[in-house]
Amino acid sequence: MIKFKTIRSKVSKIFTETQQMKIVVFLSSVYWFCRKYFLGVEINYPNEFLENWSSIKKNSSLDKERNFTIYQLINFHNQIFENKETNIIEFGVSMGSSLTTICKFCKKNSKIFGIDSFGYYADEIKKYSTSDFDKNYQGKDVAFNNRTRFSNFSMDQLTENLNNITTSKKIDINLIKCHFPKAINESDLQIISDRKYSFVYIDFDLYQSTYDALEFIFPRLEKMAIILIDDYNFINQEGCKIAVNEFGLNLSKTYQTQSGQLIYINT
């Protein structure tokens, strides 16, 4: 019998990264629409979330449910660290839809860091960070490049958009273009190393990159910090789960969502 992940892997070779992102968002919306009527369950999404989702979904690799998880967790984070200056970091910004959600809804007095190749270092990622566990990214094609996923992307425009969102909240935003951690400016590495983090979002897709992010961030977590790992239960990105398990993350402190994410609380 042909496994679904084999079919999913073959389909990923037919469509570009951008096309896959649009297909995933569309199919997810159909699924959750139908699920509502089969189970009789309906979520009343806050208007502020829906307005934000409407503005970012065209550039999102996440569906609405996964973006809603970010929205809920960042609000939970705001309550935990209400009267404290905090640092937030995202590993795997892509075109910025999830980082936009974080910036829009995070509390005042936060420093936010976004780590991504932004279309550069694609060959290095293919060579050094794509393991045998990352079957969806094997083959001749090079993912995360500026010809497909980032073909219409401007890092300067994203920075401007994020700054416009946060002007009234005393929030500093720093986007860092690199191949983490193999190719990153020493000054940028120093900036993100010398601080503790209260909210971490990991969406690196790959085994080695996910492991590297966990290894970097764990000694730098605040008490009660939240880690959200996007791809934990994705059957076509199983390197992520293997990285989490090999790292030794305490799963008794985690919650697995129906959308494939893993939430860790640093109690």
Written description of the protein model:
- By secondary structure, this protein is of the alpha/beta class.
- It is built from ten helices and seven strands.
- 44% of the residues lie in helices and 15% in strands.
- It has a single domain, classed as 3-Layer(aba) Sandwich (Rossmann fold).
- It has helices at 4-14, 17-39, 47-56, 64-80, 97-105, 122-129, 155-166, 186-193, 207-217, 239-247, and strands at residues 86-91, 110-116, 172-177, 197-202, 221-229, 254-256, 262-265.
- 38% of the residues are buried.
- It is globular, with a radius of gyration of 18 Å.
- The N and C termini lie far apart (43 Å).
Can you tell me the CATH superfamily? Vaccinia Virus protein VP39
Fold-level CATH name: Rossmann fold
Q: What do the pLDDT scores average to?
A: 89
Instruction: Describe the largest sheet.
Output: 7 strands, mixed
Per CATH, the architecture is 3-Layer(aba) Sandwich
Structural class: alpha/beta
Strand order, main sheet: write it out: 3-2-1-4-5-7-6
Written as H for each helix and E for each strand, in order along the chain, the element string is HHHHEHEHHEHEHEHEE
How far is it from the N-terminal to the C-terminal residue, by CA? Answer: 43 Å
**CATH class categorisation:** Alpha Beta
* Percent in helix: 40-55%
Write down the Rg: 18 Å
- Using the alpha-carbon principal axes, give the shape: globular
Instruction: Tally the helices.
Output: 10
Low-confidence stretches: none
Whole-number count of domains: 1
